[in-house]
Every structure is written in C-alpha cells, then in structure tokens.
Amino acid sequence: MNDALSTVLLAVFAGAIRVSTPFLFVSLGECLTEKSGRINLGLEGILVFGAMTGYAISYHSGSPWIGVLAAGCAGSLFGAFHGWVCKLPRVNDVAIGIAMMLFGTGLAFFFGKPYIQPTAPRLPALELGFWSDVPQVREALKINPLFFAGLAVAVVLWWAFRNTRWGLIVRMTGDSSATARAMGYSVDLVRFLATTAGGFLAGVGGAFLSLYYPGSWTEGLSSGQGLMAVALVIFARWNPLACFAAAVLFGGAGAIGPALQSVGISQGYHFFNAAPYILTLLIMILSISPKRSLRGAPAELSLMK
Amino acid sequence: MTETTQSSGLAAPSAIGEWIGGMRRSAEFIVIPLFALIVSASLFSLFLLALGKSPQTFFELLWRGGFGTEFSWQNTLVRTAPLILTALCVAIPARLGLVIIGGEGALVLSGFTAAVVALPLLSWAPPFVVMPVMLLTAAITGALWIGAVGALRHYRGINETIASLLMFYIAVSILNFFVEGVLRDPSDPNKPSTAPIGPANMVGEIPGLHVHWGLAFGVVIAIVLGIVMSRTTFGFAARVTGGNVRAARAQGLPVGTLMVSATMIAGACAGVAGYFEVAAILGKANGSLIAGYGFTGILVSFLARHNPIAIVPVAVLFGGLAAAGGLIQRRMGLPDATVQVLQGLIFVVLLVSETLYGRFRLFDPEARG
C-alpha cells in the first residue's frame, strides 16, 4: 500500500515536470503578449503547428534541436501575423485568436498527415537520477533540458520586466497606450514584437510535445493546453515566476490520472483527464472578480474589461 | 418655432432617399463578406497550386459533392441542420457582445443526456412520450451548460470564450467516462456507446426531402429567434447591452438577466442539435457526437454577422463544404484536414475584412455621388 502510494507520488512528481514544460512555454509567451496589452488566443494553434513543424524538421534534418528552432520560427510567423492583423482598425484580437487557432490546427493536421507514422529523433533527457539505485527515481529524474530552458526564460522575463528599459516599455504599452505614444514609442510595433516573441515561445512549447513528451506527432496532441495557458497567466497574475509555479501545478494535475492508472486504479480515469480543465475553471472562478481589476493586470487588456 | 427652422435647415431625407440609403448600408453587409469569401477562395487556390493540385478540380468537386445532385443536396442538408443550431448558439450571445465558442460541448453533452434519459423509458413508453422527453432533456442540458457560462461571465467576470472552451473539454470527458464505463452497451463490440434508443424512437424524414426533421426545426428556430432579436424588447435590450454595457446599466436594463437568458437560449439551440444527432443520425450516444459542428458553427455565425436568418443560407454553404469533404479527399488525394484549412482561412480573412467596414463611400448614404 505504502509502496503504491510512493509510486503514485513519484509518478505525479515526474509527470508534473514532464507535462508542465509546454504549459510553461505557452504561458510565458502569453504573459509577454498580454503584458503589452494584447491577447493571443491563437497560441493553441501555434502550439499544435509548432509540434508538427518540430517533428517534421527533426525527422528530415536528423537533429531534434533544429526541429525546436524551426517550431519556434513557425510560431513567431503566426505571432507576427496576429500582431500585424490586430493593429488594423475594427479587428478584434480575441476573435482573430480563435480563427488562428482553427487555421493553425487545420494546417498542422494537413501537413502533419505523412508524419504520423515515421519516427523522428527525439530530444535527449538529462539523467539527473544517476545517484540513485531505485529505477523509479532514476526514471522520474530524467528531465528534459527544455524544462530548464523554460525556467531560465521565466527568470529572465521576470527580471527584464522589472529592471530593463525594454521591460518598462512593454509594461507601459500594456497599461496605457496613450502614455507610450506620448513618450514616442510605437504601440503597434511594441505589440507586434511582443506577439511575435510570444509566438516563438509557444512554438517551442509545441516542439516539446512532439519531440519529448508524449514524443510523437498525433492530432490529439494538445487538447487545449494553449488555451489553458491564458487562464494560467491570469492565475499567475502576469508574473513570469508565478507562471512557472502554475505550470508545475497544472502538470501535476494532468499527471494524476496516468499515475493512478500505473498502479491499477483506472476508475475515473476520464475525470482525472478532465482535472486540468476543471482546475483552470475553478482557479478562474476563485481568482477573478468583476468588482476590482486584478493586481498586475495590464489595463489595456481586452480580456479583463 | 425654432425647431421647425432647425430641421428645415438640414436636408430632410425623402422616403425614397432613406430607402436607398438603407439599401446601400445593408449592401455593405453582403458585399464585404462575399468579397472575403472570394479572397479566401483565391488564397486557397494559390495554396493548392503550390501543392501541385488543381484548384479547378477542387471547386468542381466541391460543387458536385455539395450541390450537384439530389443525393449531394441531401448530404448537405443533413449537415446544415446542426450547423444552423450551433451557429445560433454563437449568434444570440454575440448580440450582447459575448464570444461563446463552446457550443460543441453543449451539443455533445445534450446528445448524451438525451440518449441516457431514454434508457429507462425504452421498455414501456411509446415514442410519443420518449421523443419529447429526449428533446426537452437535451434542450435543458444545453441551456444549463451554456447558461452557466453566461452566469459566470456576469457574476464572476470570467471570460466567456475561455470558460466555454474549457467546458467543452469537460463535456467530452463526461461523455467518455460514462460511455466507456457504466453506461457502455456490452452488446456493441465496436465503438463504446450507450444502448441504442431503438428505431421506433428515431426521428423520421421530412416527406419528400430524405432529410430528417432537424432541418425544419433549425430553420423555424432561426426564424423565430430572428424575429425575437429584431422585433421584441428582449432583442432590443440585448442589442443595447451589446453596444454599450454601461449605457445599458444606466438605462436600468437587467444586464445579468439578459446575459443568462441569452446564453440559455443559445445553449438550448446547441442542445437541440445534439438531440437530432443522436435521435436522427446515430441512434445512440458515442464519440461520433464530437464531429466539429460546434466549431464550424462559430464560423457560420460570424459570416452571417450574427443574424439568425442569414445563418440559414450560410449554414447550407458550409453544410455543402462538409458534405463534399469526403469526395474531395478521395479524388484529389488530399488529407481530411483540407476542409478545415479552407474554413480556417475563410475565418481569418473574414475577420480581417472587418477593417473594411465604413471605408467605402459607395456604401455611405450620406456621401453624395
């Protein structure tokens, strides 16, 4: 019994690290975009398209890292398009995001058909469990380098928002476009760059899905993770470090179902599968209030108005 | 006295002038979406050319598979019915400024509850009891499911777009949990499904059309809602709220009640779509309920500019696109996501074309010449 419990806890721990990485990248991308005062719901589409691109390029080039880079570039193209379109008058950023989500997943399914069968080289894992004799521990401590890369991006973003000129410009644009304009900065350009960079991060998150975990390209790969990132950013109050914590929490929630199944408890598997969605909804219900705006929320964000 | 002089100072628009002005203004709402459709078709043709496929063959097959023969019309109209209803699920809340994209979830869950409520009735109740009970259950499920989104939006300030999409994934999990678990029909070896509702309880065809009654329901509901939104106080209040929530509040309009009731009507529409998918097509609830009608419905509603009556022809168009999908796929050797790419493209171009409204003097009744 105790053994089963420790197996489950270890599996949830390992799963939290594994499953959290795409959440981490997408939410950091969304955080950057939203800080500039715009929202990109199309990150879900970018995630799926990035996963397909990463897998295809890794298959053709033989190097998963080139795949990751290609996924990021594809993501930034989508982001750039979103950034450019939203500056046109009367174009609604939320609706364009939904459209880009459908378009991005459509394109990914279209071009991804031939890559469902072949096996592409995967990203290697860092074996941090070498000191232990227990195979489960060694398994749990196989951590992908992208996890640490995401952590590094989170720290850099957090630091940059507070301490750099660029960070200040992005925050100012998100809080008051009039002020930014008065200071002589182009609001459209700042938001364009922030959306493009956000798209890059989401694309990398997608590459993690296909190149590390679950580690193959299938059409049901993402199932809304890009959208949950939006809720995750709200929960994290637009703080990149809190995004990291929230992503790990989500990863853990998503890992409960498979962990229980690994010790033979399959009852309610589908409800545990729904856990991240229910958790997201609950977090939003508990953390959002119509009476006051949230601390850290960019004032120009259409989502919060 | 002063009033008369003032009004005579402005050029008083004659009845005919006003009518022409109105026509020009509404022409804008037809010409720009049509233009968006043509641009998307051109872009998609370039996409096909880049892949070495013939756009001409594509559009010929699209025509043949969707509208060319009596059989293809039947296929199209069968797909039109759920599209009308899921598009209404987007259109009604959109009048209040809400973007609800989780209609698919309401469809799936309502189809499921309709199939489940029939189970204990099958052994003893006649069809004229089973059918209305199923329909009502589906409508109520949908109304509560999407109504909850409206309530969350009003009372907690939660973004309805994200909430409704999250609830879609939750609805799918609920369906899978029961269909693969306690409610799985053990006699069905293939796909995990609930027990069949039986041929007697299935919805029949509209005489002479070979299309089930869902189409008639969809068209009637669309017309009724079109009248409600344009001719009643409810519709007017909804439009005011959609235009400016603060103004609506200042006028003393019950914004919360409006939001919840509009989302409940919307959800009921998607629920009815779910009922017909189960009771006219599948005969039971299973994973085939997740067919993407809810997501195409979003596009249909946007293309119809959230006008319930305009939804009907647009839904026929997209029903044809869906019906022709299989033929195009087989004949041209294209992946099944081809139609999805075209739909996504249309959606993006359509939203970008929003920027064109008000830019052309042609449509401006005040501009002379």
Question: Strand share of the residues of chain A?
Answer: under 5%
Q: Kindly provide the radius of gyration of chain A, computed on alpha-carbon positions and rounded to a whole number of angstroms.
A: 19 Å
Oligomer: heterodimer
Number of helices of chain B: 14
* End-to-end separation of chain A: 50 Å
Secondary-structure element order of chain A, N to C: HHHHEHEHHHHHHHH
What overall form of chain A do the CA principal axes indicate?
globular
Instruction: State the secondary-structure class of chain A.
Output: mainly alpha
What structural class results from the helix and strand content of chain B?
A: mainly alpha
Order of helices and strands of chain B: HHHHHHHEEHHHHHHH
Strand order of the largest sheet of chain B: 1-2
Rg calc of chain B: 23 Å
Spatial order of the strands forming the largest sheet of chain A? 1-2
| Residues in helix, % of chain A | over 70%
Largest sheet of chain B: 2 strands, antiparallel
- Overall mean pLDDT of chain B: 91
pLDDT under 50 segments of chain B (min length 5)?
1-10
Largest sheet of chain A: 2 strands, antiparallel
Total number of helical segments of chain A?
A: 13
Unreliable residue runs of chain A: none
Overall morphology of chain B: globular
Explain how this protein is built.
- The complex is a heterodimer of chains A (305) and B (369).
- By secondary structure, chain A is mainly α.
- Chain A has helices at residues 2-35, 43-61, 64-85, 93-112, 135-140, 145-163, 165-175, 177-182, 187-211, 225-235, 240-262, 269-273, 275-287; strands at 126-127, 142-143.
- Helix content of chain A is 70%, strand content 1%.
- In chain A, helix 1 (2-35) packs antiparallel against helix 11.
- The mean pLDDT of chain A is 89.
- With 369 residues, chain B is an all-alpha fold.
- In chain B, strands 1-2 form a two-stranded antiparallel sheet.
- The two termini of chain B are 33 Å apart.
- Mean pLDDT of chain B is 91; it is low at 1-10.
- Chain A binds chain B through residues 41, 85, 88-92, 94-96, 98-100, 102-107, 109-110, 113, 223-224, 227-228, 230-231, 268-271, 273-274, 277-278, 280-281, 284-285, 288-290, 303, and chain B through 99, 101, 152, 154-159, 161-163, 165-167, 169-170, 173-174, 176-177, 180-181, 295, 298-299, 302, 335-338, 340-341, 343-345, 347-348, 350-352, 354-355, 357-358.
- Chain A: It is found in: Cell membrane.
